[in-house]
Design a protein that fits this description.
The structure holds two protein chains of two kinds.
Chain A lengths: L20 H6 L3 H29 L10 H36 L7 H20 L18 H4 L2 H30 L12 H32 L13 H35 L6 H15 L14 H13 L1 H15 L8 H24 L1 H7 L3 H31 L5 H28 L13 H31 L14 H4 L18
Chain B lengths: L1 H21 L11 H34 L15 H30 L6 E8 L2 E8 L6 E4 L5 H4 L17 E4 L3 E8 L4 E5 L4 E5 L5 E6 L4 E6 L12 E7 L1 H25 L1
Parallel strand pairs in B: 1-5, 4-10
Antiparallel strand pairs in B: 1-2, 2-3, 5-8, 6-7, 9-10
Helix pairs in contact in B: 1-2, 2-3
The chains are: A mainly alpha, B alpha+beta.
């Protein structure tokens, strides 16, 4: 514990930055930018959540009550886009901004001004997405995957969405280049690649995936834009194009995107499990290799989203085998976490609860993923509520739970204050309960034959839909508790001890005071 | 206490999984074709395999959660690596996957075999209805549209909803029992998907392109499905209803249709 104050800048460096709003507009500090990313993503999370509540309210009972079909489709489309591009992805970039420099002993991100720019693009894109509801004809309504020809039919809302995706893509690419450069060039002397914390490793690999696939997304939305307005026929059979080509290009981006949202989650959990087990991570190097294998495999499985689009048997078989193969490195990770916990000395503070909840529910999502990989079964469950249940198990109880875990874990370091542990545990258990209430029954809905993206359904689906809606309302309300806990912590939480988690071993806990100073590691720390 | 509720939760999910195998409402509809039967059986088998893996992994993890606690004074061990163990838990999942992939591969090949059908029907997706043309086999030349027949008042909650709410059409697709039916799919405007769960088929209908699939219905009956690819405002309102008849009944139906179908065919042309 004595090493806690290892290297603090004791040389009177002033934090002379503008105050008020200009501090945030002009800041180049990775901690300020990280905070802004997190607040932005939480705001978008609430907006996306509001849309989800609208969807579940309409589906509470059969018949059309609240949302007309056209508006319902806008809600589902924007719910998906906002949650993926507005909430989950920026939240992980926020964590990277805060944590990567202080975990590798760097003073800041490599490109500080570009960092500011990649953040400030986001509110513009967010405004375009949310504002598109008020455009003539309403927001895009072709699903978050915006398949043509349906998406060529939409109004100006679709164009606003395309511009928003362009801007978000630019922001992501800049953020990724920044993260890659920071990690490769700014590690403290002695921190070799294979000594980096797992969170840093997962983000390094994620950033490479982003640089690889975001330009593909930008390309495909540009092709859609020119199809819509400039007379091209990329996706129009009448002009020699092919609507299925869109799906191939989109999912070449879209499947790695799934792992972009889950690899940093693996990283956060891989930090938290060892800390609260008071035992080093089991199989560090195999964790790194598993992460890299998942990233590589994720680039050759895209067509498993398209088994019903029609492709040769040999194509279906290739994509089925490749997809199933991903279960192997993913399994290795789960086994490693279990082995880390095995014979540890565990305690169960809120971050640990969310991390264990993550593993538990992510594995359910992983198992239903293997089932979806089997072509004949996928033909039945594709585009049904089974798939909805599957990907919410990996994205909500996967990505989102890990974000909660990370927020509780690092908030003492960020603010110097402790969150309310009792309320944190309430937040976990309520989330756990309502999440499962919402999504577990959706497996049954899908198996029984309820398609996704429909505003109304046959009476046989009525009871499970009602249960699911009640769960969703509960889950939504529970997240306001999270907001309360965080504000309460920042405003007037108890002062955090220098090292609130005695099992933590990474640099931000061992070499920096709590809270982390505005400028940290101006001189690189000395590693053993 | 807390871990107890987690264990309870695990128990409840396991129970739910188990009950899903027993009751129709929690599973695929009763299969009515060879392919649907294959899918049904493979899904059940995989569910058991997944359940076993689930119980195995979380059995170990929750034992650890219960026993290896700081509050019980448990002292942490310090191991962090074992190549042997890592190899074992890489190889075993691979073997399980091969076991899963083998029957699926056979079914995929069977599903793709649309050769030598007894009859061929073309289904065309429109915003928002289906058009059917009997192209080959008994009933060749029959052509009609098939639209939702649920009254608007039921959707708007002004009337009581019927049993087949949103799953009923004005003109059903009629096919004979035990005959291999090849379905050719295309669309007129945007993507649609032709899905009949009990028959085990779902295939996207793509404007400007032709896709095909097949089924052989085992028993007479009425099988209902829905469009499964988002196609705009009324995506939720374009069901598919297949009526499977005995061979002689089908012949009667086909003859009756052919004598009146001229009107519908001309309507078809007009639409184009």
């Amino acid at each position: 514990m004595a090493a806690v104050h290892g290297d603090v800048h004791g040389h009177g460096h002033d934090d002379h930055h503008p105050s008020g709003i200009m501090r945030w507009v002009t800041t180049t500090n990775h901690k300020d930018i990280g905070s802004m990313y997190l607040w932005f993503s939480f705001t978008m999370f609430l907006i996306g959540g509001f849309l989800a509540m609208g969807i579940r309210a309409e589906l509470y009972q059969p018949g059309i009550q609240i949302l007309e079909p056209e508006l319902f489709n806008q809600f589902t489309t924007l719910h998906g886009l906002i949650m993926v591009f507005g909430a989950i992805m920026p939240a992980f970039v926020g964590f990277a901004n805060w944590q990567v420099p202080i975990m590798i002993g760097a003073p800041d991100m490599a490109f500080a001004r570009m960092n500011n720019w990649s953040f400030w693009l986001l509110p513009v894109a967010g405004t375009l997405l949310v504002g598109s509801f008020f455009a003539p004809g309403g927001a895009a309504a072709g699903g978050w995957t915006f398949y043509p020809p349906l998406s060529t039919q939409g109004g100006i809302g679709v164009d606003l969405m395309i511009f928003a995706v362009h801007i978000l893509g630019a922001s992501s690419i800049m953020g990724s280049i920044n993260i890659i450069t920071t990690i490769l060039n700014m590690r403290a002397p002695g921190m070799t690649l294979m000594k980096m914390p797992m969170f840093v490793w997962t983000w390094l690999i994620t950033a490479y995936l982003l640089v690889l696939v975001m330009p593909v997304l930008a390309g495909v939305v540009t092709m859609l834009l020119t199809d819509r307005h400039f007379g091209t026929s990329f996706f129009n059979a009448a002009g020699g194009g092919d609507p299925v080509m869109f799906q191939h290009i989109f999912w070449f981006f879209g499947h790695p995107e799934v792992y972009i949202m889950i690899l940093p989650a693996f990283g956060i959990v891989s930090e938290i499990i060892p800390t609260f087990s008071r035992k080093p991570l089991f199989g560090y190097s195999s964790m790194v290799y598993a992460t890299a294998s998942i990233a590589i495999l994720s680039c050759i499985v895209w067509a498993h989203h398209m088994f019903t689009a029609g492709m040769p048997a040999i194509g279906q078989l290739f994509f089925m085998y490749a997809t199933m193969l991903i279960a192997v490195p993913t399994g290795v990770k789960v086994f490693n976490w279990t082995a880390t916990m095995w014979r540890g000395s565990m305690s169960f503070e809120t971050p640990m609860l969310f991390a264990i909840g993550f593993i538990f529910l992510f594995v359910i999502g992983g198992l239903s993923g293997v089932i979806c990989a089997i072509v004949p079964i996928d033909i039945q469950v594709q585009d049904t509520y089974y798939v909805i249940a599957h990907f919410h198990y990996v994205l909500v109880s996967g990505a989102l739970f890990s974000l909660f875990a990370g927020a509780y874990y690092w908030i003492p370091k960020w603010t110097g204050r402790m969150y309310n542990e009792t309320l944190g545990k309430w937040h976990f258990w309520l989330s756990m309960f309502f999440f499962n209430l919402t999504f577990f029954v959706q497996h049954f809905l899908g198996l029984a034959g309820m398609p996704r993206r429909i505003p109304d359904y046959n009476l046989q689906f009525a009871d499970f839909n009602m249960i699911s809606s009640i769960g969703a309302f509960g889950f939504g309300l529970t997240q306001l508790l999270f907001l309360y806990i965080m504000i309460n912590c920042i405003r007037g939480g108890e002062k955090a001890p220098e090292k609130p988690w005695d099992g933590a071993t990474t640099l931000e806990w061992t070499h920096l005071p709590t809270p982390a100073p505005y400028h940290s590691f101006e001189k690189p720390p000395v590693l053993k | 206490m807390r871990s107890k509720s987690v264990v309870t939760l695990a128990g409840v999910s396991a129970l739910a999984l188990y009950s899903s195998m027993a009751v129709g409402k929690y599973n695929f509809p009763e299969p009515q074709s060879i392919i649907a039967k294959d899918i049904y059986d493979q899904h059940l088998m995989l569910l058991w395999v997944c359940l076993a893996i689930f119980v195995g992994v979380f059995g170990v993890m929750f034992y650890s959660v219960l026993k290896h606690r700081k509050s019980l004074g448990y002292k942490a061990a310090n191991f962090h690596h074992s190549t042997t163990v890592e190899i074992i838990w890489t190889v075993i999942p691979c073997l399980i996957l091969i076991f899963m992939a083998y029957p699926a591969t056979k079914t995929v090949i069977a599903m793709k075999d649309t050769s030598s059908p007894d009859m061929t029907i073309k289904a065309t997706g429109y915003q928002w209805m289906w058009g059917y043309d009997y192209l080959q086999g008994e009933g060749e030349g029959i052509s009609f549209f098939s639209k939702l027949s649920t009254p608007r008042a039921q959707v708007e909650n002004k009337e009581t909803k019927g049993e087949n709410y949103l799953l009923e059409v004005d003109n059903r697709v009629v096919v004979p029992v035990g005959k291999k039916v090849r379905v050719i799919l295309t669309a007129n405007d945007v993507l649609h998907a032709w899905w009949v769960p009990a028959l085990g088929i779902k295939q996207d209908a793509i404007p400007g392109f032709i896709r095909d699939t097949w089924f052989t219905a085992d028993r007479p009956g009425i099988y209902r499905g829905q469009c499964a690819e988002l196609c705009g405002k009324d995506h939720g309102f374009m069901p598919i209803v297949v009526e499977v008849m005995e061979a002689d009944e089908y012949s009667k139906w086909a003859a009756a249709q052919l004598s009146t179908s001229t009107v519908k065919t001309s309507m078809h042309i007009e639409n184009k």
